[in-house]
Design brief:
Length: about 150
């Protein structure tokens, strides 16, 4: 009778941490063009070329863009890309409910990317109907950044 369990050397038995570490090392952090979200334009070098963002900066830019892009609105993006923060506008919910929903929506939007390991330490600052939100994002390479966003 054939053996039910494989006997090859490349199969790892029960060492889930080793498998997860191998998966983290396989994730590539590519480059991108540097973008200034405040100015609404690409960052230019003194020679007039578009500046290049390294892997970590490209990942942080991806996170910013994912929060700014409304989900399901643009056909060019997959249904997993973007956030649903615009659906919170005018709901009339209390601040505690809105903060809970912001936490859930931001976490879901950012964990879609394999480079993002965790999203936590949310803080909220309210001024009338504006909410300034910050959170800590951690990459699979243990890079930590503070991400800021505003919901009106």
């Amino acid at each position: 009778m054939a053996n039910l369990f494989p006997s090859t050397d490349d199969f790892i038995w029960g060492d889930e941490e080793a498998v997860a570490a191998a998966d983290r090392n396989d994730i590539e952090f590519g480059r991108s063009w540097r973008y200034d979200y405040d100015a609404g334009d690409f960052v230019m070098t003194p020679s007039g070329r578009v500046a290049v963002a390294d892997g970590k900066e490209a990942w942080v830019q991806w996170c910013h863009k994912a929060l700014l892009t409304p989900r399901y609105r643009h056909v060019i993006y997959s249904r997993d890309y973007g956030s649903e923060l615009d659906t919170l506008i005018g709901t009339g919910q209390g601040r505690a409910v809105l903060e809970s929903e912001l936490t859930r929506m931001v976490t879901e939007a950012l964990l879609v990317d394999a480079r993002t390991a965790s999203v936590d330490q949310f803080t909220f600052s309210w001024a009338e109907d504006h909410c300034q939100m910050t959170c800590r994002i951690t990459s699979v390479q243990d890079d930590v950044e503070i991400l800021e966003s505003e919901v009106i």
